[in-house]
Amino acid sequence: MGKGVYISKGLAIATVVLTVSAVSGIVLMVVMYQLQIKENPPKVPPTLIPTTPIPTGPPPNLRLPDNLIPERYEVFLQPYFYTVLENNTVQSHVFKGNSTVTFKCVKDTRSIFLHALQLSVSNVKVTDSVTRKNIEVERYEVHINKTNFFEIQLKEVLNGNGSYYELFTEFEGELLDDLAGLYMSRYTENPVNEDDDQKRFLMASQMQPTDARKVFPCFDEPALKAVFSITIIHRPETKARSNTPGEGKYTDIDGEQWIVTKFEPTPIMSTYLLAFTVNQFTDKEVKLENKEIRIWAKPEAINAGHASYSLQITKDILAFYEELFGLKYPLRKLDQIAIPDFGAGAMENWGLIMYRETALLYEEGVSSTSNKEWIATVIAHELAHQWFGNLVTMKWWNNLWLSEGFATYISYLGVNKVEPTWDILDLIVLKEVQPAMEVDSLNSSHPLSSTEAEIQTTAEISDLFDSISYSKGAAVLRMLCAHIGETAFFEGLKLYLKNNQYQSTDTTDLWKYMKEVSTEDVESIMYGWTEQVGYPVISINTSTGEIWQEQFLLNQTGDYGLEWQVPIRFMKSPLFKVEKEVLREKGPVARPAYDLKPGEWLLANINCTGYYRVNYDEENWYKLIDQMETDHHDIPLISRGQLIDDAFNLARAKYVNVTLALSTTKYLINETEYIPWESALNNLQYFILMFDRSEVYGPMQKYLRKQVGPLYDYFQEYTDNATVPEKHSEQFNQINAISVACSNDVQECTEMATKLFKDWRNGTNRIPPNLKSTIYCSAIASGDEDDWDFAWNQYEKASIATEKDKLRYALSCTKKMWLLNRYLEYTLEPSKIRKMDAVSTINHIARNVAGQALAWDFIRAHWTEITEEYGSGLMSVGSLIDEVTERFSTEFELQQLKQFRREHYGDGPGPAARALEQAIERTQANIEWVKENKQTVMNWFLQESKDH
C-alpha cells in the first residue's frame, strides 16, 4: 500500500471555518454586484465606425472621378506663330498659357485628376478659394497613356463638404498640323498679281471629341460643364476670335508689341465646344435682332462675294429654329469661319462655328447645285447643334446620337425652310435612311445608345461618329415624328430643350418629355430602336394575311430574339387609302387587312417613314413590279425607290431571289425621277463592285446602256445647250444620266465629254458647274498622261475649294496604274494633298477598279503613318478601311483582312477597329453571295440585254 499525509484535529477545524467564511464572502459579493447592476446598468460601448480611406490612386476606369466639379475657368493662351513670314523670320510653333479652374469638392480627396495631352506643365498651385491658403502639392504627372490623366497628389486633404478650390497651371504646347486641339493651317493668299502669291498661316482649333486637353489642362468630359473666360495674346495685325465677343488692346510684353484680346465669359458649356482662331481674315456681317452674324474667310473670298449665300441662309435658318424650338439663340454673336484645313466637314463650337471652305463658300457660276445643297445642309446641321449638343448636351458620348441624330434630322427642316423648291425632305431617304440601314444590317453594328461602360477610350468615342449616330439617329426621329404627329413631336422637343438648357441629358430624359405630349407610351415604343442593335424586316403574306418581324441581317447567323414596336403605314390597290397600325408582337399574327382579294396589291411602309424593310410573298412582289412597269405613278415616288432598295437588300440576305431584285430596275427605262434612279444605281453599284473584275461585267454594262438611253435622251437638250434643268432633283438626275452613260461606254457620251475637256485644254471651258465632276472624270478615264497632268496643274492653280474638290476626284478616274500610284504617294505630302483631303482621295482611288488593289496595298504599307498623322480629330480612318475594302469578295482578300487585323490589332482595339470588323463581316457575306449568285446574275443580264 502507499504512503499518506496526517494533520491534527485543531488544524482541521480551523481549515473548515476559513473555507466556510471565504465561500460566504464570495456569495455576498455576487449578491451586492447584482444589486448594483440592477440600479446602474452598464452602458454599451460605442461601435467603432471604420473611416473611409481617402483615395490616392488612379481611377478604376478611364472616366474622371466624381469628387470634383469644375465651375469656371480663366484661360490665357499666347501662340507665338507668325501669319506672314518676312525676311529671315523663322516660324514658331510654340504656344504658352496658364489656366485657373475653380472647382467644388464633394468628396474628401488628396488627389486631383483632370486631363492633359501633349502639354508640358511647368507650374501647379492649389488654393482654397475662401481662405486663400495654398494646399501643398506633393507631386504631379501627365500620364502618357490612353487615360490622358493629369494627376496631382496633395499633402493635405481637400474638404469634401462642398468647399471650393482653385487649380492654377502653367503649360506649353506645340501648334502641329494634325488638325486637332490647337493647330496651324497654311494657305496661299492671292493678290491681284498672281506671281506675288504669299504663304499665310493661321491658328485654328478642333476640340471634339477629346482634344480640349491638348490646349490646356481641363476636366474634358461633356457633362462637366463650366463657364470659360478666355484671353488670347497674339501678334499685331492679326485678329483673335473665340466663342464670345472680345476686345483687343495693344500691350508691350518683354519689349514686343502684342494684342491682348479678352473675351466675355461663355455660357455654361462643355470643353469640346470651345473654339479659338487667330488669323488675318475679313468678314461679312448681317444682324438678326440684336445678334451679330458674321462669315469670316480669306479676304479674296469675302471680296468676291463667296460668303453672301451662307450669310443670308444662316440668318433665315437661325430665325426659323428660334421659332421652332421656342428658345432664342442665347449668345450675342455667331461667327462662322471657313478654314483652309479642317478635318471635319464643320464643327458646331458655340458662337464660333468652323467649316471647310467647301461647306461655307459658294460662287455662282462655278459652284454646282450639289455644292450649294451641301453648304445649306451643313450650315443647317451646325445651327441645329446650337440647341442640340450645345445648349442641351449628352451626359456621355454613348448618347452622341442625341446631338448628331437631332442635328441631322433638324437640318432637313432648316434647308426646306430656306430652299422649299428643292423637296429636300424627300431626299432624307436617299441620304440618311438607306445608308444607315446598310451599315446597320451587319452583326458588327452598334445600338444608337450604348452603355457608358462600352464607350471609354478615345478610339471608342471616335468610332461613334458614324452613320449610326448621324443617319440612323435622324431616321428614328423621323419615324417617331410621323408616328405621334409633328405637333406633338415639336411640343415635346420644346419641353425637352426648355427644361434641360445648360444641362446634360440621356435618352430617357428625351422620352420623358415626349410622353408628356403624346398619348403613346413613347419610351416603350422607342426602346428597341435606340437600345437594340439593328432593325427589323417586316414580312407580309398577302395570301394568308399574316405578318411577322425578325432582325434584318445580311449575314443571318441565328435568331437573337429581338423585337421592336413597329409603326406600319400601308395601302392597297385600287383605293390607295393609307392605313396605320403598330406591330408589337414578333408574330406571325393574322391581320385581315393584309389578306388581299384577287387583283389587289399591297404596299407597306409608305414613303419609307419607318426604319425597317418590308418583304412580301412572291406573288405580291411581282404585282408591285408589274404595276411599276405598267404605270409607276400609282406607287408614290419615295416608295418606288424604297421598293428597289428593299428588294436588293433582301436578295443579299437571301429572303428573295436575286432576279426579283434585278427585275425592279426594268421599269426604269420609263422613269425620269431622281429618287428611284439613285436608289437603283446605289444598289447596282454593289453588283459593279462584285463583278467589274469578272465576265459578268460586259453583259451588265450592256443592260445599263439600254436602261439609261431614254434618260440620257431626256436630258439631251440641256446637255447640248449647257443649260440647267429647273427642278433641283432633275439637275441631279441629269448628272446620273451622263455618269451612267459615259462609264458604260455610250459612245455619244464619251465623245461629248472628251470634246468638252479638249476645248478646256485649248482655253475654252464650257463645262457647266453641275457636270464638271462627271465630265472631268470621264475625259481623264479615257485620256492620257497629258490629260492627267493638265488636270493636276489646274488643281494646283485653283483658288476655289469646290473646284479643287472636283478636280481631286477626277484625277482618281484614270485607268493608268502608274499615275494612280503616283497620286497615292501625293496623299502623304500635305504640300500636294491637304491632310484633310488625304483619306477621301485614297477612297476615290479605291473606287476605281484599276486603283482598288493599289489603294489597299498602300494603306497596309503606310497604316501606322496614316493613323498617326491622319487619324486625329474627326478625320475618319474608319471610312478608309470601309471604302478601300468595299470590293473584297474573295477568300484571298478575306485572309488579307484577317492578317491585317492580327498585325495591327493583336494587342487590342485601335483606330478604326469597328470598321475593320465590319469589313471582315461584309467580305465573308460577299464571298458567299458571289458564289451563290454569279451565274444567275450573268444569265439574267445576258437575257435582258440580248435584244439591245
Automatic annotation (TrEMBL):
Per the entry, the cofactor note is: Binds 1 zinc ion per subunit.
* Cofactor(s) this protein cannot do without: Zn(2+)
The chain positions of domain Peptidase M1 membrane alanine aminopeptidase read: 309-529
Catalytic residue positions: E382 (proton acceptor)
CDD domains from the xrefs?
M1_APN-Q_like
How far does the signal peptide extend, from start to end residue?
A: none
Per the UniProt record, the site (Transition state stabilizer) maps to Y470
Molecular function terms, GO-annotated? metalloaminopeptidase activity; peptide binding; zinc ion binding
Ranges of residues in domain ERAP1-like C-terminal: 601-924
Q: Does the keyword Transmembrane apply?
A: yes
Report domain Aminopeptidase N-like N-terminal positions. 70-273
Key words, A-Z: Aminopeptidase, Hydrolase, Membrane, Metal-binding, Metalloprotease, Protease, Transmembrane, Transmembrane helix, Zinc
Which residue spans traverse the membrane?
Answer: 12-35
Binding annotation for Zn(2+): H381, H385, E404
User: Under which EC number(s) is this enzyme classified?
Assistant: 3.4.11.-
Q: Name one GO cellular component term.
A: cytoplasm
Which Pfam families does this UniProt record tie to the protein? ERAP1_C, Peptidase_M1, Peptidase_M1_N
What's the protein name?
A: Aminopeptidase
Q: Which family does it belong to?
A: Belongs to the peptidase M1 family.
Could you state one GO biological process linked to this protein? proteolysis
Coiled-coil spans in chain? none
